[in-house]
Specification:
Dihydrodipicolinate Reductase, domain 2, about 40% helix, Rossmann fold, alpha/beta, 6-stranded parallel beta sheet, 2 domains, single chain, 7-stranded mixed beta sheet
Length: about 325
């Protein structure tokens, strides 16, 4: 990155950190409940998880007509943040980028993330991309490539990564099992990327990167995904349909430690998002995110092959 760009970004981050002005946020995609939840915590000083120094000022509705979870909610959430929090609805991503300092890419449909992120990256705006990063490993890698070449900071994660399971984290864990909901969405090529991503993020929050092989077995009501890490630890994720709560079990020799039930904590995630926009440093390294997508890609290939172990790409 040229020095003048680095200096400009640093001054922007420092000005926000010092409280000189609100960091203006824009939202792309108003078809998820995360949109009013996040907007409340950035815009409403009375909110329990209020994050000072930031404000959502604009939103582009987007939406996917062939995905019911998008088509039936996009207008309602857009109207809610306009009417309750004064967010301006704009006709396209270019207009949005001209109005903001950073972007929350919230579209519920992972298939559209690459094209939407491409426009934000071209405008050199730092961005948070809500789950899933993309619908395929190839798209995830392309987003990373575009951002790297343009020197645009980005990150993605599930809010479940910041649930309180600190009691089960330990370097002495020899293995981990996590569970969560696993509904499917027919348009997403990687079945885990739609909702299973939450449990997979929890698995990586516990074990970190370094998985070598993945096996997935499936039935109509569940998926069980097992990864073997390079140091011999084993991680398992069980995804239930239609829905379940979330939990973690850690194994330490003869001891077993359980964290259950886990609470979804948007406030903790929004605090990390704010820190990211202040510093430009992703709280989840981009390479770990790409390994998570390689993990889900390997799981899909294992499932498609009848449950054979598959190496991560």
């Amino acid at each position: 990155m040229p020095n003048f760009l680095k200096s400009g970004l640093l001054l922007l981050f420092c000005a926000v950190y010092a409280g000189a002005a609100d960091f203006r946020l824009g939202i792309i995609g108003t078809d998820t409940s995360h949109v009013p939840a996040f907007t409340k915590e950035f815009n409403d000083p009375a909110a329990t998880g209020f994050v000072p120094g930031f404000r959502v000022v604009a939103a582009y509705k987007g939406g996917s007509p062939d995905l019911p979870d998008s088509a039936t909610r996009v207008d309602g959430f857009a109207n809610e943040i306009r009417d309750k929090y004064g967010v301006q609805l704009v006709p396209d991503i270019a207009t949005l980028c001209a109005m903001v300092d950073g972007v929350l890419l919230e579209s519920v449909d992972g298939r559209v993330h690459l094209e939407q992120a491409r426009q934000v990256i071209a405008a050199h705006k730092p961005l948070f991309i809500d789950k899933p990063l993309a619908s395929t490993l190839a798209d995830a890698r392309e987003i990373a490539r575009l951002a790297r070449e343009a020197n645009v900071p980005w990150f993605t994660t599930s809010s479940l990564r910041y649930s309180d399971f600190s009691s089960v984290k330990s370097p002495d864990n020899t293995g981990v099992s996590v569970w969560g909901p696993g509904p499917l969405e027919e348009h997403h090529q990687l079945s885990l990327s739609w909702y299973g991503i939450h449990a997979i993020e929890m698995l990586y929050a516990m074990l970190g990167p370094g998985c070598l092989t993945v096996t997935q077995t499936s039935s109509p009501d569940s998926d069980v995904v097992v990864g073997v890490w390079k140091d011999g630890r084993v991680g398992e994720a069980r995804l239930s349909r239609p829905y379940s709560d979330y939990g973690v079990v850690a194994f330490r020799g003869r001891n077993v430690v359980v964290a259950h039930p886990l609470k979804v904590d948007y406030a903790a995630l929004d605090a990390r998002i704010a820190e990211f926009f202040r510093t430009g440093v992703p709280p989840v390294p981009n390479q770990e995110t790409l390994e998570i997508f390689a993990f889900m890609d390997a799981a899909q290939r294992s499932k498609d092959s009848g449950g054979k172990p598959v190496n991560l790409q």
